[in-house]
Specification:
The protein has 354 residues and is an alpha+beta fold. It folds into 2 domains: 47-72 and 248-352, Beta-Lactamase (2-Layer Sandwich); 81-244, PAS domain (Beta-Lactamase, 2-Layer Sandwich), CATH 3.30.450.20. The chain has 6 helices and 16 strands. It has helices at residues 15-91, 93-97, 102-111, 196-204, 247-254, 301-312; strands spanning 115-122, 128-133, 154-162, 165-173, 179-185, 208-209, 213-214, 221-230, 236-245, 263-267, 273-275, 283-286, 289-292, 317-322, 325-333, 343-349. Strands 1, 2, 3, 4, 5, 6, 7, 8 and 9 form a 9-stranded antiparallel sheet that branches. A 5-stranded antiparallel sheet has the order 11-10-16-15-14. β7 and β8 (221-230) form a beta hairpin. The longest helix is centred in the first third of the chain and has 77 residues, at 15-91. The relative contact order is 0.12.
């Protein structure tokens, strides 16, 4: 039988195929490494972003609360001044009616820059005494909108009704109370007694804050703080009051650091703007008529979008989109004891903090 011979054939993997395999393994490892790094970075970014946003939320809430405290504090000395004026007038009615409290008014105005004026109105005949600080460079002031005498510091106004005749007297005085000039206007026929601030103070038998209004004397928005004056037997003597401009609050809001794009404003319960960084935007002028502006009607797109989001789902803190960017807004109410349903609204761009 013939012997079979088997030849063993050695087979080898082609070099190109080996290289391809090694290349695929390296690629797979690289892809996995990129995915891992990306996941880690994304997770870290998400965690950091989430942490930063949490801090931003706390920051914006703290800023809002601080603004509210500052605003409430601004009214504290006003309330005390009005109450003190009422007590002084009650204790010496004749002195008050004769202008004897004007020096006190001047001292209060010097120490309380947020005041637009301080005044007393009397129930018996509607007599009205009012003191104004006059800006150093004022070109027109008073009933006739004439230029005050050089060196004028205060304007002292006295309205009387005697023998059926109405008289509106304006005296312009310097820092020491020396009269520098005077003028009279009998056109207005102003009677304070039917005014809401007068009636509300007597009805409340205590301090009241009026709704936001526009003062005719300087065409600026403000709030009136009023306190009734009662005799010992309960008879109404009159009301002491002060006008508080919101300009100082607006200036405070303008200097808040809420990031490059942040903004804050103050509104009342009807949505009217009490204070805004740009004071000129708080009023709308139609000819000679001035009206208050609603927050929803402001030109700032992010403000309008914030209020639209808030009205859709009211909350103290909301996130919303404006101009394609994520924003955060807080809507914080004033404390109940303040007596007004106001809100402090702060709006920030999230990217300013992330």
């Amino acid at each position: 039988m013939a012997k079979q011979t088997y030849t063993h054939e050695r087979r080898s993997i082609p070099r190109d195929r080996g290289r391809s395999l090694r290349f695929n393994i390296v690629n797979l490892f690289t892809v996995l490494l990129i995915i891992t790094i990306t996941s880690v970075v994304s997770f870290a970014y998400y965690k950091n972003t989430s942490s930063v946003l949490d801090l931003t939320e706390r920051f914006i809430l703290r800023v809002a609360e601080s603004c509210i405290q500052s605003s409430v504090s601004m009214f504290d000395p006003v309330a005390e001044s009005v109450k003190s004026t009422a007590v002084l007038a009650r204790d010496d009615v004749q002195k008050a009616r004769g202008g004897g409290l004007f020096p006190y008014f001047q001292t209060v105005l010097n120490n309380t820059p947020q005041l637009q004026s301080l005044y007393i109105a009397f129930e018996a005949d509607g007599q009205f005494l009012q003191a104004f600080p006059v800006p150093a460079k004022a070109q027109k002031f008073g009933a006739n909108e004439s230029k005050p005498p050089e060196g004028t510091k205060f304007a002292l106004r006295t309205i009387t009704r005697k023998d059926g005749k109405y008289k509106d007297q304006w005296d312009y005085v310097d820092e020491d109370g020396h009269v520098l000039g005077a003028e009279t206007s009998n056109q207005l026929n102003y009677d304070p007694r039917p005014r809401p601030w007068y009636q509300d103070a007597i009805k409340a038998k205590g301090l009241i804050l009026s709704d936001l209004l526009v003062y005719t004397s300087n065409r600026q928005p403000g709030i009136t703080a009023a306190y009734p004056i009662f005799a010992q037997d309960g008879t109404v003597i009159g009301v002491a009051a002060a006008n508080v401009t919101t300009n100082q609050i607006s200036d405070f809001l303008a200097h808040l650091d809420l990031g490059p794009s942040g903004i804050a404003l103050m509104i009342d319960e009807s949505g009217q703007v009490i204070a805004y960084p740009d004071i000129s935007k708080t009023l709308h002028q139609d000819g000679f008529k001035l009206s208050l502006v609603k927050a929803a009607d402001l030109e700032e797109e992010k403000v309008r979008d914030a209020f639209a989001a808030y009205h859709a789902a009211p909350d103290a803190l909301i996130r919303f989109k404006s101009g394609g960017h994520a924003h955060l807004a807080s809507f914080i109410p004033f404390p109940k004891e303040f007596g007004k349903k106001w809100q402090l609204v702060a709006i920030v761009l999230e990217n300013d903090f992330v």
